[in-house]
């Protein structure tokens, strides 16, 4: 699989990574055996980048990845984790003492002395402009607790604030065929600064897989029951803020754009990979087959007309009604 440099980390990572929220069992039950099978299928398919967080299953996702990595020291893996959601979302809680507490826990969970990449996990907006926060992150690097740091954001303004900081290695942001706004300013700014872009929610919480209908219901413990109607745009990420029924209809139109023999999910991932400035896309997978199909998107070459068709679909079906921040 193609490898790209993850911004200021200097690390080479696969263009398709693996998001591991689901391994924490926050999207329904996932056994340890199933989790290990997913990790096996991903790495066998060329994936070298895992994204996790300290709150995914209260650390379960980190622990599983840590055990997997220890069992496969020969694999050239980069593991990014996230911190900041274990406390009340008050900017006053984002201190060096808290950062040390959180990263020490992640180091234990992942079984490493130095974390490859730690990202602030969608903290309150004022955090992104705090000199003290970046000084604290720099201290963690100097101490050897973390090798690099980045941010995970909800809004483009937050991304731009972080990109302007010289120590920011990467930005993780929602980017998919139903969420195009980062293309305007965030990706160009990241390219100019040498900051990596990690694209999350690439399938709009599964909508772009084309598998859902208006009557689809999710298990009671599935995260996708939150924000089903898109009432909290830029707050949370379920279905990328798109009203579910509107999204299902738009997903049918998107599926019709996919070339023959290419699954809609693969077309969605391949389109993101093709955006100038994107380093890695991190779809989740709950089965080995999903992991293999996602990874195979790295080899998909879309027609020259595909990008324009995605923009036209967004402009006609989505932007006028459910993305008012345009």
In DSSP terms, counting alpha (H) and pi (I) runs of 4 or more, how many helices?
A: 10
Query: How many beta-strand elements?
Result: 10
Mean pLDDT: 91
- Contiguous uncertain segments of 5+ residues: none
The chain-level structural class is alpha/beta
In short:
This protein has 326 residues and is an alpha/beta fold. The protein has helices at residues 32-44, 60-71, 96-110, 131-143, 156-163, 186-193, 244-257, 264-273, 288-296, 306-322, and strands at residues 3-5, 12-14, 18-19, 49-51, 78-83, 117-121, 149-152, 168-174, 196-200, 280-281. It has 10 helices and 10 strands.
Descriptive overview:
Helix content is 37%, strand content 12%. The strands form 2 sheets. Strands 3-4-5-6-7-8-9-10 form an 8-stranded parallel β-sheet. It is globular. The longest helix is centred in the C-terminal third of the chain and has 17 residues, at 306-322. The model has no long low-confidence stretch (mean pLDDT 91). It is an alpha/beta fold and 326 residues long. The protein has 10 helices and 10 strands.
SSE arrangement:
Elements: E1 3-5, E2 12-14, E3 18-19, H1 32-44, E4 49-51, H2 60-71, E5 78-83, H3 96-110, E6 117-121, H4 131-143, E7 149-152, H5 156-163, E8 168-174, H6 186-193, E9 196-200, H7 244-257, H8 264-273, E10 280-281, H9 288-296, H10 306-322
Parallel strand pairs: 3-4, 4-5, 5-6, 6-7, 7-8, 8-9, 9-10
Antiparallel strand pairs: 1-2
């Amino acid at each position: 699989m193609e490898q790209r440099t993850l911004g200021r980390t200097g690390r080479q990572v696969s263009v398709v990574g693996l998001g591991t929220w689901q391994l924490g069992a926050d999207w329904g039950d996932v056994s340890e055996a199933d989790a290990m099978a997913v990790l096996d299928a991903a790495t066998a398919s060329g994936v070298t980048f895992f994204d996790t967080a300290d709150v995914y299953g209260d650390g379960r996702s980190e622990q599983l990845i840590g055990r997997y990595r220890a069992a496969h020291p020969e694999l050239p893996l980069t593991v990014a984790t996230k911190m900041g959601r274990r406390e009340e979302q008050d900017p006053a809680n984002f201190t060096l003492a808290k950062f040390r507490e959180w990263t020490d826990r992640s180091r234990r969970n992942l079984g490493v002395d130095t974390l490859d990449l730690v990202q602030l996990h969608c903290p309150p907006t004022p955090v992104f402009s705090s000199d003290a926060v970046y000084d604290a992150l720099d201290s963690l690097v100097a101490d050897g607790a973390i090798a690099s740091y980045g941010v995970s954001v909800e809004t483009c303004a937050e991304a731009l604030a972080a990109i302007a900081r010289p120590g920011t290695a990467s930005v993780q942001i929602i980017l998919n065929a139903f969420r195009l706004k980062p293309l305007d300013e965030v990706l160009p700014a990241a390219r100019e600064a040498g900051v990596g872009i990690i694209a999350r929610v690439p399938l709009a919480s599964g909508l772009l897989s084309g598998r859902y209908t208006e009557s689809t219901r999710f298990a009671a413990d599935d995260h996708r029951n939150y924000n089903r109607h898109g009432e909290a745009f830029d707050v949370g990420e379920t279905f990328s803020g798109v009203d579910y029924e509107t999204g299902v209809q738009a997903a049918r139109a998107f599926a019709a754009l996919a070339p023959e023999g290419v699954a809609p999910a693969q077309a969605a991932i391949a389109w993101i990979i093709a955006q100038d400035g994107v380093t890695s896309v991190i779809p989740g997978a709950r089965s080995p087959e999903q992991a293999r199909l996602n990874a195979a998107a790295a080899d998909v070459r879309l027609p020259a007309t595909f990008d324009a068709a995605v923009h036209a679909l967004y402009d006609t079906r989505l932007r006028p009604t459910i993305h008012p921040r345009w």
